[in-house]
Design goal:
The protein has 369 residues and is mostly helical. The chain folds into two domains: 161 residues, no CATH class; 184 residues, Peptidoglycan recognition protein-like (Lysozyme-like, 3-Layer(aba) Sandwich). The protein is 46% helix and 6% strand. It has eleven helices and five strands, in the order H-H-H-H-H-H-H-E-H-E-E-E-H-E-H-H. Bound molecules: zinc ion. The site of zinc ion (ZN) has 5 residues, from loops.
Length: 369
């Protein structure tokens, strides 16, 4: 933690002057960004690792430290951290500038990667979608200034063009999924569900671990019967009585991705507040006993990458059910994949508060709320 009590009060003290300086610097930044990102200027190494200072209580138009720095992943990480900390009390022009910087940065990196190796298009698509979503969000804001609006609109257009032209790069939501009508889903009961309270910020993965599972033989019919079984259990179960299947997506061992609950509604898969802004994905099978198939894991990776791109969800926010409460779900063999996807150690064990529902969960693996 940086101990510089003077820095935020100094920023407040310059007050009106910093607005002028800020506008001037923004002009400089615009000039630099149109001139290209080839500047050799590098930030002092010390700045990179420094944690952000505590945010000031009053709205601040202090010039962000990252403004005008050459593009790098380190800079984008700093901008993200600024948005989550001191940027929360910054004026709209700087917050918008920060988001514009993030989306423009992602777009620039995606273009460079596509130029270097067009075969990477499917991987780059995730980044392009994140950039496009960022520009689109900005364009909905009324406090965007004229220059920012122009840059956001150009960025959105270019990202859309690259997405359409890049082989294998699907538009958002276009990952091949099987519609509810095709697998014979029961009609949902919206009165029994909550609308999502905002964009999704995490993903939780489950296994179905049915006591009496439908035997899958690769035919769509069997998979669809299994999905209907899970939905019925969620909607008619004594403990559940959900308005719909609890998960947003189901994946079968043959790599099929089935649409579950509409993403407009919060899922019912991780219990209570754990469901808030949390996409639920269930792989059909019991992965304490079996290993998930390559086809299922391939589909899972594509789906998770797609969702992360669509909602800007960091890799660290991809969980196994057991990371949120005491349960064996999603099974040891699937959990290993999740830990490796996240790129690190398992999450901290759940707190004692979350232990309570364990008994119910082990009796009925379908009780997921
Ligand atoms: Zn689960």
């Amino acid at each position: 933690m940086r101990s510089s009590p003077g820095s935020s009060s100094a920023a407040r003290a310059v007050g009106g002057r910093s607005a002028q300086v800020g506008t001037a610097l923004l002009g400089l930044f615009l000039a630099l960004s149109t001139a290209g990102c080839r500047s050799t200027q590098r930030p002092p190494a010390g700045d990179v690792a420094e944690p952000p200072p505590p945010y000031a209580p009053a709205q601040s138009d202090a010039v962000p430290g990252w403004l005008g720095e050459p593009l790098s992943w380190e800079k984008l990480a700093r901008v993200e951290s600024w948005l989550a900390n001191e940027g929360r009390t910054a004026t709209a022009i700087w917050r918008n500038e920060a988001e514009l910087t993030l989306s423009s940065g992602r777009l620039t990196f995606a273009r460079r990667e596509l130029d270097a190796d067009p075969a990477k298009a499917p991987a780059v698509a995730t980044r392009l979608r994140a950039a496009k979503a960022g520009f689109d969000r900005l364009l909905l804001r009324e406090d965007l200034n004229a220059g920012q609006r122009r840059r956001a609109s150009e960025g959105a257009e270019l990202a859309a063009k690259l997405l359409a032209g890049a082989p294998g790069a699907r538009p958002p939501g276009a990952i091949a999924t099987i519609a509810r009508a095709d697998w014979g889903a029961l009609r949902a009961k919206p009165a029994l569900m909550d609308r999502t309270s905002g964009p999704y910020s995490r993903i939780t993965i489950h296994h179905s671990a049915d006591n009496d599972p439908v035997v899958l033989d690769g035919s769509p019919g069997r998979t669809f019967a299994a999905a209907r079984d899970i939905q019925r259990a969620h909607m008619n179960g004594k403990e559940t009585r959900y308005g719909d299947i609890g998960y947003h997506f189901l994946i079968d061992p043959f790599g099929r991705v089935l649409e579950g609950r509409d993403l407009a509604y919060q899922g019912a898969h991780a219990m209570g507040d754990n469901n808030i802004k949390n996409v639920g994905i269930c792989l059909i099978g019991n992965f304490d006993q079996d290993k998930p198939s390559e086809a299922a894991l391939g589909a899972l990776r594509r789906l998770v990458d797609d969702l992360r791109g669509r909602y800007s969800i960091p890799r660290e926010r991809v969980y196994g059910h057991r990371d949120l409460r005491v349960t064996r779900c999603p099974g040891e063999n699937l959990n290993r994949w999740i830990v490796s996807y996240r790129g690190g150690a398992p999450q901290a064990p759940p707190t004692a508060l979350e232990v309570k529902p364990q008994a119910a969960a082990s009796r009925s693996p379908r009780s997921v709320r």
